[in-house]
Amino acid sequence: MANKQLGFYINVDRCIGCHTCEMACKETNDLDLGPRWRRVRSVEGGSFPRPFAYFVSMACNHCENPICVKVCPVGAYTKREDGLVIHDPSKCIGCQYCTYACPYAAPQFDANKGKVGKCSGCTTLLEKGEQPACVQSCIMRALEFGPIDELQAKHPSAVRSIPVLPDPTKTNPSVLIQPRPEVNLKPTRIVDGVRARQV
Known about the structure:
By secondary structure, the chain is α+β, with helices and mostly antiparallel strands.
């Protein structure tokens, strides 16, 4: 019998946007300055007297139907029995097809290395019986990791997507999100690191 699909649980109501998960990911994976395998996005909207803002911490969602696996011309991606989507840098030719195809922008191109990289779920830590670095470092305990069906049972009100994220039916991401009331309101601005875009 195959292992259960692993995935992330994100509690939007707890996240304070401290970016500690981002820094832990970069340190653990020895990433250069540019690539961020986990990104905390700020979503803003409303107007006086009812403005709103919340944060969404996203990485690779280890999708059930990963587009990156399908578009990679050299087979640098594999989906393991536990559902984790793994990228092999030794096969990567830096074509960046995956970066254009992934609706969540999970694969990140490293110009210094000429290759793509992305979240692996911290497989080296999992093999030691530990949690991914982002989960361990979260000071608000807004992130959890494990079999997605167990996370769903533990958090029955969590959803598979929120309006500011891409249509989940395209890839069936292995992520659960504990929303807050504002997530269903139309935002006016989304900030991804230092880049902001009006909605």
